[in-house]
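So, can you check these tokens?
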Amino acid sequence: MPPGALQEPLTMEPAPENGKLSFLSDFDREIYEWLELTTLADTEFLLRKGQANEALKHLRESLGLKSFLVRRNHSVSEGQIAKCRSEPEIENADWRVQKWAEVYRRAFQAMWKLTPLGDDGNHAGWRSIGCGRRELPWIWKMQFGTTKPDADKVSDVIEEWTTEAMRIEWLHAQASVNRFEEGMKLLEAESEHVGKTFQYYQRNWLSKVLHLTQEVLQEVQDGGSHPARMLRGEIAYANR
């Protein structure tokens, strides 16, 4: 356990599974260097790097989808109802953007702690990423390996992102249609079952009415003393 962990206040958790599992990136580099855990730190750095790249990929896709939805909302949707229907889709896309941005932010902060300091101790090389005015933000150029990619490649990639965003949007719409059709089938089945249930009870009560009527006739024929008012009440109750 890193020495810095001993300085943290102890918190009593009701269950062990709720306890916090700290990584090396949760502590200063001097601590795990002193404990000779730099190999584990380098391993976590590689994992965090992969996490950051994966988050960037999802972030680009989410940004492309959000951009596509916003443009469609302003240029295609006509009428207040259509625009209101598209708002939840835009909010959902924005939620995904915020989610993957937070994943990337945390991974980057962990990589910042896991990387050895430079001569100035400020990670000067890392600060240059994303700075300055360029034709396209650095996040869109990660896969080219250069700050000045070919214009045709950029156009092809942007078209690919737009196609992917439209594909994701179509899949979401198709999933909504499938859920609606499934709900309609369930509703039709339930309606049919309700009708059959009422028919079943109707047959039961008609059978009771017939049985009571036969009892009344038999009672009259036998000259019994069963009160007529009670018999009429039983038949009326069954008919209801």
Observations:
- Residues 198-239 form one domain.
- The first helix runs from residue 3 to 6.
- The radius of gyration is 36 Å.
